[in-house]
Amino acid sequence: MTDFKEMISRRHEYARRWKEKTGGKVLGYFEPYMPEEIAYAAGVLPVRILAEHEDDEISDKWIYGSCYPVRDMVNQILKGRYDYLDGLINVEGCQWMFHAYEVITNNRPDLFCHYFFMPDYTDAPTSKDVARSEMNVFKQKMEDWTGHKITEEDLDRAISVYNKNRRLLRRMYELRRRNNSVILGSEAMQIVLACQIMDKAEANEILEQYLDEIEDREPYEDRIRLMIVGSETFNTDLEELVERLGANVVIDELDTGSSYFWNETIEQKDRLMALSLRYLGRPHNPIKDNNWRRRIQHIFELTEDYNVDGVIIEKQIYCHLHGSDNYAVWKMLRERNIPFLYFERDMKLQEEDTSMRIEAFLNMLRPGVTHLAGWNRKFCG
């Protein structure tokens, strides 16, 4: 785990070293709908902007009242933490993210910038054609920016590297389905986050070796099995707190977690259409799940597949998308008598208060405790 753990804390140093070694450009992005393969095919390193708790004296001037992760991203970039970025892309999605994109690009006129429209109605008859058109525009923008003509062979190579990364991450998540897991939730989340800021080819080499080593690891003792649902997280504070209390997060449904890599690109002659179908077909966050409403069923299937004992729903304060979607999640969990705990948080996890609530929740899940069908209604008010 040393390589992946260090990668998160030293991600800026990694990107700077990558630029020195390759002479390539680094492209920052916010949303998981950004077609990284196209940038990668042009020799560009896509780097996800990760929020972290840091003293903020800047964002109030530019972006008042938005969610804390977005404000922190603005704070970090305007402070120069991401001074190695050559460009920034925003994909149609969260409006707070779009506001951050405008603030950052107005203050960093040196950055290449691009707005990518990914249809909100992902299942509409014309969505795949709209997405493909946007893919083609983005491809041309990358070619103009880098001076590198993206060939079909370049796209094939990028798709292959990214599909391998997704297969390796799915293999890691399969290990978490075991009754006694050989990997903790905090370890798994560190790896997924690291893969979003590393060169995928390098990440694949390290991850493949790591998975070969842990397959025969002595399993951890039997623990209460939890699932995390909700807003994006950018660290492993919550997973580590759960582990200290004697439980384990065996699965998540997060844009920075399983939803980032869950499905592969199915190769076809039209590479851009293949990429369009992949990103339109991924597990969606609330803003892209507003038509056929597949997210709720996906959450239920994960609770079944991973045999979870309970669900933690965490929402970033001011995250309106998850705030509006949580009612549907609560309804599904109550109808299926799946215990859940809901709480709101900001960038810094309030450990004492959160620990007390999670410990009380775990005590109700321990063997021998009778679950009441109405308990969730009372607990969540």
Task: Provide a short characterization of the protein structure.
The chain contains 16 helices and eight strands.
Features:
disordered C terminus, 381 residues, 4-stranded parallel β-sheet, 16 helices, alpha/beta
What would your notes on this structure say?
- With 381 residues, this protein is an alpha/beta fold.
- It is built from 16 helices and eight strands.
- A four-stranded parallel β-sheet has the order 2-1-3-4, sandwiched between helices. It has a four-stranded parallel β-sheet with strand order 6-5-7-8, with helices on both faces.
- α7 runs parallel beside α9.
- It is globular, with a radius of gyration of 21 Å.
- The relative contact order is 0.12.
- The C terminus is likely disordered.
Task: Give the arrangement of secondary structure elements.
Elements: H1 2-9, H2 11-22, E1 26-29, H3 36-41, E2 45-48, H4 68-79, E3 87-91, H5 95-107, E4 112-116, H6 127-146, H7 152-175, H8 185-195, H9 200-214, E5 224-230, H10 237-244, E6 247-253, H11 258-261, H12 271-280, H13 295-305, E7 310-316, H14 320-335, E8 340-345, H15 351-365, H16 375-380
Parallel strand pairs: 1-2, 1-3, 3-4, 5-6, 5-7, 7-8
Number of helices: 16
Structural class category: alpha/beta
Distance from first to last alpha carbon: 40 Å
Strand order of the largest sheet: 2-1-3-4
Average of the residue pLDDT scores = 92
Write down how many β-strands occur, each being a DSSP E stretch of 2 or more residues: 8
- Strand content of the residues, in percent? 5-15%
What characterizes the major β-sheet? 4 strands, parallel
Order of helices and strands: HHEHEHEHEHHHHEHEHHHEHEHH
Radius of gyration: 21 Å
Low-confidence stretches: 370-381
Task: Report helical residue fraction.
Answer: 40-55%
Q: Rough shape?
A: globular
